[in-house]
Amino acid sequence: MDYWVGTKIIANLKDGEYFNMVGTPDTVFHVGQWYRLYSRKFEVMTNWTAFAYTFNTKGIELDYGTELRQIAPGKNNEIYVLPYDRYYASKKLYRISKDYTTVSNISINLESGLNGLASLTGGYYALASAKNGDVYVGLVGSKDFNGQRPGCYIARSRDKGETFKCTEIPGYAAERPSKILVDNDGLLYVKMSNGDILYYNATAANWKLLYKGDGLYEIVRDFACAGNGNIYVTSTKGFFLIKEQGAKIITLPMPSDMIRPGFENVWVNQKGSIYTTADTLNVRRPGYEVSNCYYSTDTGATWKHVRARGEGASKMKIEGFDVAGRLFATFEDSTIVRECCANVRYIQFAMTTKAVE
Q1: E strands, 13-66, in order
Q2: What is the pLDDT of residue 127?
Q3: What are the tens digits of pLDDT across the range 183-199?
C-alpha cells in the first residue's frame, strides 16, 4: 500500500480553508471547514466512507462565514466544536455525539460555571481535550458588567461539558489564551496571544512562565509537550527545548537545507519523535516531491524530511497522530491545477499507513 492514503479534491479558494483534523477511537479523522464537519472512516484498505455534518441543516444557525477551525476529540468518540467568526468573539461551544446525530450547546453550561464572572466580555479562544476525556476552554471574561475588570481563564469540565470550573490566569488581562495542551501526565500548558507559554501546577494552584518571547523581535508560533514537564517551542528565532520548568533553554540546530529559522507547527508522537513544518520560502528543496515537513528521532540533533508520496506536496501541514501513531496531514498545491483553472488549489487529506519514524 502507498505510504500516504487519503482523499484528494480540487477546491476553489473562495470555498474557504480546511482546518484541523482530530481522530477518535472509532474513526480515522474528522476535519472542520465552514460550518461543516467531515468524518472519514477507513473501512477496508483504501476504501473511505465520508460523512458531512452541516450545522445549518440541523436546526442550529451559524452566522455566514463561521469557521469550525477548532475541534477536539472526546474519550467516548464524541467531538467538541468551538466555532470561529472573524468579526465576533465566539461564545458558543458544542458537543456532537459519536454518530453525528445529536448536537448539544454546552456553552450554556460553561456560562453557568464561570465562578462569579459578571460577564463574558471576550468570548472563547482555545479548545483542547485530555486523554482522560476532560475538556478545556480558554476564554476572556470580566468580574464586572461594564468590562472594567477583564481577565483570562481556563474552564475545565470533567463530565463531557455538563459542568465547568474556571481558573484565572493572573497578569494577562490584556491578552487571551491561543492554545491549550494537556500532556499524557495531565499537566496543563497554555500559550497566550503575546507568545508567552505557561504551565499550571494544580497541586500549588499557581501558574509558571516557561517561555517568554523577545517582544517585537520574535513571534512564537507553536509549542508541543516533550514529556517530563518539558516543551518544544518554535518561533521566528529558532527551535527550542525548554527544560526544568523554564530554567533551561536549549537551542536546537536547524535542518541543513533551511535558509533561516522558518519553523511553524510542531508535534511530538508517542515515541518522542519530533515533527515540524517550515515556511516553504525558507527551505531549499530539490523538488516538490520533498515536503516542507521535517522529523527528528534524536531530540532535534538531526532532521530528515517527511517525504510526500504523490502530488500536493508543495505545502504540508501536520494535523496530528492517531492512537496507532499514524500521521494525519494535509497537502496543498496550486501549481498542478493552474493550467486548467484559476483561483483553485489541490488539497489532499492523508494519513500514513503505518506509524512514522
Answers
A1: 21-22, 29-32, 36-42, 48-54
A2: 95
A3: 888 889 999 999 999 99
Taking alpha carbons only, the member of 62, 55, 84 closest to residue 71 is: 84
**Within a 10 A sphere around the Cβ of 181, how many other Cβ atoms?**
18
Write out pLDDT tens, residues 36-56. Answer: 787 877 655 455 566 777 776
329 grid coordinates: 496531514
pLDDT score of 190: 97
For every residue of 198-244, DSSP letters joined together read EEEETTTTEEEEEE---GGG--EEEEEEEETTEEEEEETTEEEEEEG
| Distance set, CA 179 to CA 14, 167, 237, 323, 334 (Å) | 27, 16, 20, 22, 29
Facing residues of 200 across strands? 188, 207
Q: Are 86 and 65 in contact (CB under 8 A)?
A: yes
Phi, psi values for residue 166, rounded to 5°? -100, 145
Q: Which of 217, 204, 169, 221 is nearest to 190 (CA)?
A: 169
d(CA 30, CA 8): 15
Cell of 272: 518522542
Confidence bin at 289 (pLDDT 50/70/90): low
C-alpha–C-alpha distance, residues 336 and 289, integer Å = 12
Phi-psi sector, 229: left (phi>0), alpha (psi -120 to 50), beta:
left
> How far is residue 128's CA from residue 35's CA, in Å, rounded to a whole number?
19
The burial class, CB within 10 Å (0-12 / 13-18 / 19+), for 121 is buried
Cell of 180: 491549550
Residue 200, C-alpha cell as written in the block:
499550571
Degrees (nearest 5) of the Cα angle 239, 245, 250? 30
**Sheet hosting strand 165-169, strand order edge to edge:** 119-129, 135-142, 150-157, 165-169
Question: Structure pTM?
Answer: 0.87
Interatomic CA distance for residues 128 and 114, integer angstroms = 18
Q: Residue 284: phi, psi to the nearest 5?
A: -90, 95
Locate cell 483542547: which residue?
A: 128
- Alpha-carbon gap, residue 36 to 4, rounded angstroms: 24
